[in-house]
Design brief:
eight-stranded parallel sheet; EC 2.5.1.54; 2 domains; 34% helix; DAHP1/KDSA; alpha/beta
């Protein structure tokens, strides 16, 4: 249940009262107070009805991440990026950290193209257990040095609750990959951190399942969440690795206040189609793109087939920015 109060002070009074009654899962956004566990307003008899503007009994189950509770766009501020609203964010880097020299070189290319966030994986979830799994903490160290040298934010994937503290020592933004979207222990763990979280859509997840995963993070206190569409599993994998669900982007812009970004690299799966897929996502309203790059894609340790060269990245980012400006 969401109670709209006359002002922020009245809303905070309600939160304080709720805590004195030992009510759980009570949240406030400006003059709105959300009660995740309460369905009947009779349980809220302690509220001064003269201060109540509206009672919203019907709202999404993923309450905190909904626009019903939080009408305004969330803005996430990091050292080098402002994410959300009318901003357009470019994220780029190698799929996997391969060496200190390589991540720095790719970071230089990414920054020159306008990216403010340097991505890269030191822990890699692979379908084949014998494939390259990442360099672990050594990769995190090289990644951190490159980001600091270039004045960029660092973003990397975390795969296990046990790794959250270690990864958190290095990264500016936690990435939750598609295979971990419903790893609830991991979602709770990053929800207890004070750093932004990028949550990718599960490859077969519905919109409600995706938003509920974001709610898991928010329920632990961390509301610095951004969502990333990265393509969903469909029936035609001969030509497409995944299918970019472009139509979900405007749906999410309507349902949630969280920033919505897109990953055309994983959606397309082959470099020749990454640009077109990414531009379609921007035209649909994506507030940012994440691109995998490599100077020698055929020699990449992971997913070289879908990696753009730095030159291809520049072309994509220029077109994407122009389309975003038109859509905005």
């Amino acid at each position: 249940m969401i109670i709209v109060m006359k002002d922020k002070q009245a809303a905070q009074t309600v939160v304080t009262q709720a805590k004195s009654f030992q009510l759980n899962h009570v949240y406030r956004f400006e003059n709105r107070v959300g009660f995740a566990d309460i369905k009947n307003s009779a349980a809220l008899s302690f509220i001064n009805q003269d201060d109540v503007i509206e009672i919203i009994a019907e709202h999404p189950a993923a309450m905190q991440v909904s626009r019903t509770f939080h009408p305004n766009d969330t803005m996430i501020q990091t050292a080098h990026s402002q994410i959300g609203g009318d901003n357009f964010n470019l994220i780029a880097g190698p799929d996997a950290i391969e060496s200190a020299e390589h991540v720095l070189a790719m970071g230089k290319s990414a920054k020159a193209a306008g990216a403010t966030i340097l991505r890269g994986g030191s822990y890699k979830p692979r379908t084949n257990p014998y494939s390259f799994q990442g360099l672990g903490e050594q990769g995190l160290k090289w990644h951190r040095i490159a980001a600091d040298t270039l004045g960029m934010d660092m973003m990397t994937e975390v795969m296990s609750p046990a790794d959250v503290d270690l990864v958190g020592q290095y990264t500016d933004i936690f990435q939750i990959g598609t295979r971990n979207m419903q790893n609830f222990a991991l979602l709770k763990a990053v929800g207890q951190q004070d750093k932004p979280v990028l949550l990718k859509r599960g490859m077969s997840a519905t919109v409600d399942e995706w938003l509920s995963a974001a709610e898991y993070i928010a329920s632990e206190g961390n509301t610095q969440i951004m969502l990333m569409e990265r393509g969903i599993r469909s029936f035609d994998q001969k030509y497409l690795r995944n299918t970019m669900d472009v139509s979900v982007i405007p749906v999410l812009r309507e349902l949630t206040h969280l920033p919505i970004l897109a990953d055309p690299s994983h959606a397309a799966g082959v470099a020749e189609h990454v640009t077109a897929t990414g531009l379609a996502a921007v035209a649909a309203g994506a507030q940012g793109l994440m691109i995998e790059i490599h100077d020698q894609p055929t020699k990449a340790l992971v997913d070289g087939k879908q990696a753009l060269t730095p030159e291809q990245m520049v072309s994509l980012f220029e077109k994407a920015q122009a389309i975003h400006d038109i859509v905005r």
